[in-house]
Write a structure and sequence with these properties.
single chain, about 250 residues, 2 domains, two-stranded antiparallel sheet, 11 helices, about 75% helix, about 5% strand
């Protein structure tokens, strides 16, 4: 917990963390889309360089990136097993029925580099932007307030659901339930059903309480927007890099 607080504090003090969120979110999202647009292998080192610079400006440690990228990495392992042996015609190595193909290897390289560079930029974005700042930025670029509020409520009550699940598991364990055999499927189904019913009832209570307080009857104005010159400079750099990546696709 102390380590996570230190990471958040260092990220908030970084250049990316001090960047106005209402400019940072659209700028980095535009950069992510330009990364996805890349099809030329010659541009892959440029993607790696840009992603490395962005992550360095975030103030997040490299271990933070490795932890967040561990789970999505399993998808790439499956791609690495299948793609080089099934895609393409040029065989560069063969062992019995297995044939390693050049086009598959190049396609895998393109997917891996684009995947990890996009993931790096997204982790830097979310690691330096709090959820209220993120929802405010989404509202600024035109996302309806209902969707942004649902995002906030979902994030808030995920922790509540996790706490309720821990309590139910503790209660079941105290009654001798282990959940390690096939016969445990029925009790687990009962627990899942109970969680769904309790979640539905709680959502209705929250909705009624907020309705009584006037929620949804008027829209609150957005906070004042006072970006600094460096915020616009970073926005201009992000737009320039995105345009450069797109244009280079037609030149190379």
């Amino acid at each position: 917990m102390i380590a996570e607080a230190a990471v958040s504090k260092s990220a908030a003090r970084s250049l990316l963390g001090r960047w106005e969120a209402r400019l940072k979110v659209p700028a980095l999202l535009l950069l992510v889309f330009s990364f996805a647009f890349v099809r030329d292998l010659l541009l892959l080192p440029v993607l790696v360089l840009i992603a490395a610079i962005i992550y360095a400006l975030s103030g997040l440690p490299f271990s933070h990136l490795l932890i967040r990228a561990r789970l999505p990495g399993f998808f790439l392992i499956a791609m690495a097993i299948i793609l080089p042996f099934w895609s393409g015609q040029t065989i560069i190595w063969q062992l019995g029925p297995l044939a390693l193909r050049q086009e598959g290897l190049l396609g895998l390289l393109l997917i891996v580099v684009k995947f990890f560079t996009i993931l790096t930029v997204v982790i830097a974005l979310f690691g330096t932007t709090s959820l209220p700042q993120l929802t405010l930025a989404l509202r600024t670029i035109g996302i309806p307030w209902l969707i942004t509020d649902l995002l906030l409520f979902t994030y808030r009550y995920l922790y509540q659901l996790a706490s309720d699940l821990r309590q139910m598991r503790t209660a079941a364990r105290l009654r001798g339930f282990t959940g390690t055999s096939v016969s445990a499927l029925k009790p687990l189904a009962f627990i899942a059903g109970t969680m769904l019913v309790r979640s539905q009832e709680q959502s209705e209570r929250v909705f009624q309480a907020m309705t009584l307080r006037g929620y949804g009857n008027s829209s609150l104005p957005l906070p004042s927007f006072r970006p600094l010159p460096v915020d616009f400079l970073l926005l201009a750099v992000a737009i320039s890099l995105s345009a450069m990546l797109v244009l280079l696709q037609f030149i190379l």
